[in-house]
């Protein structure tokens, strides 16, 4: 982990084109995935803590997904800033209630639907100070959205690589590395041994005091349990970030 953060400081992140070619089922899934995931239901037993938003509510909360609400864009879609009432979660006027970050999946992304579902099912259950909080989701016809707590300082990637940004002091970098390690350790120590599988600076989000939280659980999976010390898996992650030995072998992940 420490290696990753300091290594990332000296190497440029993958280009947008490389990011878009994030390997995993992003490569080859047929349209069947899309149909299957569109019809798949959220596991409500694990999403009890989550609010099911209507598409209209999220449209209102983001001023119709207006470009001046845009916080950023990733491989699966855009992230918008929105406002909701802290008690009722109804959309509220900008400047009132609480700020949230709303990720809107591109409707044509079949892998996006699959990862959306994984994210809801994992983050709907997991709560830790170093994991970003998922507040709710929207699943209405082909629309898939996720509503998160707003992280005012955005992603670590922006602080490391954006032109003209103020460099983060080394003690803050150390704190971020420790926060991320805590988040991963929490996942690895759960009964399900959750493996995160998408470790990169853009998935590390920062609050107003530079406390760091992991985001994006779409590629997470349950790890080995009991006497099974290995799990077989197809190789997933983002080019340029995954460990070379994992990319080369593609079969075994182990937690020791
Ligand atoms: N909860 C949040 N609070 C504030 N900003 C956020 C939040 N979530 C995402 N963002 C912003 O939106 C940007 C895009 O995030 P997203 O997770 O969609 O893509 P990414 O991580 O950059 O790329 P990839 O699709 O490869 O994971 C982030 O870099 C960040 O600046
Ligand atoms: Mg991300």
Automatic annotation (TrEMBL):
SMART domains recorded: S_TKc
Record's catalysed reaction(s): L-threonyl-[protein] + ATP = O-phospho-L-threonyl-[protein] + ADP + H(+); L-seryl-[protein] + ATP = O-phospho-L-seryl-[protein] + ADP + H(+)
E.C. numbers: 2.7.11.1
GO terms, molecular function: ATP binding; protein serine/threonine kinase activity
Signal sequence range: none
PANTHER family (UniProt xref): OS01G0588500 PROTEIN-RELATED
Name of the molecule in the record: non-specific serine/threonine protein kinase
């Amino acid at each position: 982990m420490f290696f990753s953060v300091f290594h990332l400081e000296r190497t440029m992140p993958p280009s947008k084109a490389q990011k878009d070619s994030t390997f995993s089922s992003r490569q080859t899934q047929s349209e069947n995935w899309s149909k299957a995931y569109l019809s798949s239901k959220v596991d409500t037993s694990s999403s009890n803590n989550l609010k099911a938003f209507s598409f209209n509510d999220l449209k209102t909360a983001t001023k119709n997904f207006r470009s001046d609400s845009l916080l950023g864009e990733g491989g699966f879609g855009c992230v918008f800033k929105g406002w909701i009432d802290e008690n009722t979660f109804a959309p509220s006027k900008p400047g009132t209630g609480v700020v949230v970050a709303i990720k809107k999946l591109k409707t044509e992304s079949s892998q996006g639907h699959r990862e959306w579902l994984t994210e809801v099912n994992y983050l709907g259950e997991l709560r830790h100070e170093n994991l970003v909080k998922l507040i709710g989701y929207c699943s209405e016809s082909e629309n898939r959205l996720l509503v998160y707590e707003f992280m005012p300082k955005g992603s670590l990637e922006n602080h490391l690589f954006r032109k003209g940004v103020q460099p983060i002091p080394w003690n803050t970098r150390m704190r971020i590395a420790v926060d991320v390690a805590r988040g991963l350790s929490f996942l690895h120590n759960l009964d399900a041994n959750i493996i995160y599988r998408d470790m990169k600076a853009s998935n590390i989000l920062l609050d107003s005091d530079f406390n760091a939280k992991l985001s994006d659980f779409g590629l997470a999976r349950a790890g080995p349990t009991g006497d099974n010390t290995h799990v077989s898996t197809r190789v997933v992650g983002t080019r340029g970030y995954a460990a070379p030995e994992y990319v080369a072998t593609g079969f075994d992940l182990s937690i020791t």
